[in-house]
Each structure stands twice: as structure tokens, then as C-alpha cells.
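FORM 7B: Structural annotation worksheet

SECTION A. Query
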Amino acid sequence: MKIIQVGSGGWAKGWLEFIHADPDCELTALVSRGGSSLEEAKARYNLEDSRCFSDFSQALKLDCDVVLIALPHRLHLEYAMEAVRAGKNVLIEKPLCESMEDAARFVEFMGGRRERAWVSHNFRFRKQLWQMRASLGPAGIGTPQWADVSLRLGMSGAKDDPAAAWQRVSWRQGQASLLFLESAIHHFDMMRFLSGSNAFSVYATAWTPAWGGVDTPLSTMAVVEFENGFKASYNASIRSIGFETGWQGNWLLQTDKGAVRWEYDGENRLEMGDGAAGALAESFYFAGQDRCGVLNELKRQLRGEPGAVPDAADNLNSLAISFAALKSLKEQRKILLSEIL
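SECTION B. Predicted structure
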């Protein structure tokens, strides 16, 4: 799979590692404004000057299977639309963009085109999540009823804590919500993937800890109800002190036959109700961990096979949960997803 990557710093550095490690992927070109991140990438991956571009339009003249856009969120759609107009497929880092209106316009723009647009949600590529999903059903661990999901990114109480430096980056603070577009959207997407359903309603409250260091909510409690009756309680803080869960969060999935715990990124643990039979699936398809899984599924989807990387239209359903939560904060009421979509 030939890839043109746009962006070389921050999160984009990780993408370069995953592409380099995949024998079926080839970095056709790297588009960057230059600086130390570009020089580091050139040295680490032996990139010739001929594969490095500051002019995106020039890079788009090269043949590729997909253009990977790993830039600040406000730039996602500008670059995606230019790539699509040039006849390229695109893989866009989450969130797709910073407003539902822009997202809807992009989906309309993509309508009827042969080019494809996908959104990378790397958190849905966790083996424990896929195992839970593969284990569901009457013959397995039962039908999902609800989940308790908690996220704690434990740090010190210092406002200038280096571990929270990413939260102080100016472009991140300028977006609609640091909490809901950087972090919570991952877990909302995981809930959709696990339940096999889109959300019906959201009720949320949020606040900023006294030691937060930024003028934006960093903690939330929310309830998400899904169209198939599944429910999830969500308790998250990206500026907590102590007892860190890891970015994937801690999960307790309740089914009508038992419960599964996934904590601190350890193995799933199952406890069945009295007299109930069922076990976690031991043999199941898993595309791969994190962005390795994204790349593997993208290869399948480029061949026309089904896969787990959501396209832009499907991704509206994850993005909408975050914006429904923001509307709930503002209006202090339960928000129906039909008000957002």
C-alpha cells in the first residue's frame, strides 16, 4: 500500500513508525513544512529529498493508494478535499473536523465519488475490545446491556506538569473541546463498535479541576443511550491525580448472562451469573493493535472487502456523540442525536 503522509511532527511521528514497520506499506512521499521533525524523519527512515515535499500539490502528482492526513484538526478537510480532487483516497486522523456542519458538508462532497475517505480511530483496535465483541451472543457471554467506562490520565497537581504539555498546545486549546474531541471521542467510537449500534441520546456534565492549567473542561460524567437499548456511563478526566487507567480506559461490560472487566489494559476477566454458561472467545479475528490494525484493515477495504476503519459518513455517528455532549453541557439537558445529525 503506497502512502503519501501529510505531517511529520507530533502524532504524525508515530504514523511514520507504523508505516515503516509494515512490510506491505511504502511511504511514497512525506509532506512537511520542514524543521526538526522533518530532519528527524529523514535521518531515521533514510528518506531521500526526492520523497520530501513542502508543496502538497506537487506530492499529489505521485501515484499512491491513500493520502494520510495527520495535521492539526482545523486543517483536515482542506487537505482531504484537495487530495480527493486530485483523485486520491484519504485516511484522516480523528476527529474528522471541528464542527458537525463541516463534517456534513464533507460527507456531501464525497457523495457519488469513486475516491474513498476514511477516519482513523486507533483506539477501536484493541484486542480486548475485539474479544468482548466476538464473545457476545446467546451462545457466548450474552447480549450487552450496559457498560461503565472510566478514563483517568493521572498526573501531578502542578499546572505546568510536562505530562500535560499536549493540553497546552495553542491549536488544541483553540478547538471546540480538548476533552471531547481529543479523548472522549475515542471511547464513544469504541462504545459504538462494541455495541453494534449508534447513539440515541447523551446527557453530560463537565468541569475543569482547580489544577487544570487551561480554560476548558477536562473532566466529565456522561450517560450515552444507544438505539438498540445499550447504555453506557462515562466518567473521564484527562487531568486527574493518581490511579491512571491508561488512554484506553477501564471497562466493565454487563451482559444478560454475566460481566467482563478490562482494566489497566490487562486481559479481559469474565464472571458469569449463577447457572449461566459462556466463555470469552479464544479464537477470533483481530486486525492488529492500534495503527497496525488501521493499516491492515485499510488494505482490505482498498480491495473492496469489509473492514473496521469507518468511512467519513459512518464516522459522523461517533463525532455526533461528542457534539451532543457539548450541546448537553450548554443547555443542561439530555440531547437526542437526531438534533445533531
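SECTION C. Observations
The mean pLDDT is 94. Residues 312-331 form the longest helix (20 residues).

SECTION D. Sign-off
Analyst initials: ____
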